[in-house]
Amino acid sequence: MISVNDFKTGLTVEVEGDIFTVLDFQHVKPGKGAAFVRSKLKNLRNGNTVERTFRAGETIGRAIIENRGVSYLYASGQEHTFMDNETYDQFTLDSDQLEWELNFLKENMNVNIVSYQGEILGINLPTSVELKVVETEPGIKGNTATGATKNAKVETGLNVQVPLFINEDDVLLIDTREGKYISRA
What we know:
By secondary structure, the protein is mainly β. The protein has no helices and 16 strands. It has strands at residues 2-3, 12-15, 18-28, 36-43, 49-55, 59-62, 66-76, 79-84, 90-94, 109-116, 119-124, 128-136, 149-154, 159-163, 171-175, 180-184. The strands form three sheets. Strands 1-6-2-3-4-5 form a six-stranded antiparallel β-sheet, with no helix packed on it. Strand 15 and strand 16 (180-184) form a beta hairpin. The protein is flat and about 65 Å long.
């Protein structure tokens, strides 16, 4: 058990049977009445974000999340197969569990699987990945007054805004948190 007074960003807790990670919190001491903690929590099972208020000093369950290294092997329809890097056990996740992550996953890519008491909650991607441009328009010369960009489609199907000098077959470094172009690799 953990007191809500000890909340930290990134802490994982169990509230009413669901697993949450603390995104933001604020201790509030009003002039009249009891102190409380206002928090923003992300549900790790379905990805929803909720705002909850707790009384100061209230205790809730601490959720110990396990991270293991796995390799992404292949996709077969809606199922995506991964292999544990230590035990070589294979398991599958449905496309619904990996909606955002599928924009960055390539075969043989190493990622971390997030689980709680044997239940797989999702995967953690590296902060940036290298992806190859498969389709983009040629840059138009003279159209560069202030950081002009164009659309580029990378090998996973993600569309990214890139500078005009990027061409097909270039390998780009893409931020996985926002899906934005960082630089050429």
